[in-house]
Design a protein that fits this description.
Elements (H helix, E strand, L loop, with lengths): L17 E7 L4 E7 L4 E5 L5 E8 L2 E5 L2 E5 L4 E4 L5 E4 L6 E8 L5
Antiparallel strand pairs: 1-2, 2-9, 3-8, 4-7, 4-9, 5-6, 5-8
Length: 107
C-alpha cells in the first residue's frame, strides 16, 4: 500500500504553479497543486477523464465550463470529462489543492 504525507510534499516555485504527483493507481491519480498568488492553471479540457479539485489551504477561483466560483479549504468541485476548466490563485496567500483525476492520464 502506498502512503503519502501531503504536507511533506508541498513545493512552490516563483515561476509557475507546481503540480506534484502523489499517488497513482490503475483507476485514478491524486495530484497536489501549489500556487503562489497570481499563478494559474490555464483553462483546458480532457476528453476522457474527470477531475475533482479539493481546496486544502488558501482560496482560489476555479472556472468550469465558463462558470467561475471561489474555492476555499474544505470545498470541492468536479470538472467533468470534456468540459474546459482551470484555476487561479487570486488570493493573498498560497493556494494548495488536492486534485483527483480518473482515469489517470496516459502521459
Amino acid at each position: 500500500m502506498d502512503w503519502v504525507r501531503v504536507k511533506d510534499r508541498l513545493q512552490f516555485s516563483e515561476e509557475r504553479m507546481q503540480k506534484i504527483l502523489l499517488l497513482r493507481g490503475s483507476r485514478g491519480q491524486l495530484d497536489l497543486y501549489c500556487l503562489r498568488p497570481g499563478q494559474a492553471q490555464k483553462p483546458h479540457a480532457h476528453g476522457d477523464l474527470d477531475k475533482i479539485y479539493l481546496g486544502v489551504e488558501g482560496t482560489g477561483r476555479v472556472t468550469i465550463g465558463g462558470e467561475e466560483r471561489s474555492l476555499e479549504p474544505g470545498e470541492a468541485v468536479l470538472a467533468p470529462a470534456g468540459v474546459e476548466h482551470g484555476v487561479i490563485n487570486d488570493g493573498r496567500d498560497a493556494l494548495v489543492m488536492l486534485v483527483f483525476v480518473a482515469p489517470p492520464p496516459s502521459h
